[in-house]
Description:
The chain has 87 residues and is of the alpha+beta class.
Amino acid sequence: MDLYSREVVGWSIANHMRAALVCTALQDALSRRPGARPLVHSDRGSQYASAEFRTILWRHRLKQSMSRSDAAPFVGTTLRLSHSSEH
């Protein structure tokens, strides 16, 4: 979800919660917003800490933010896109 516009920008559906699911959703979001360099915020689920997910972040030079370990469960993942004209 883009926190600025509140628009869902990437998604994926599967019958599992493995890393491939979140990787597909992130790649979908990146394909819909070419050139965007979002801050990717998620909970501390193992799929978001996986080598596969972190490799995608590294390839696209994205920053990852994770919620504190004592935060509410199922925080979800959000993308914060900068809409400032100062860039």
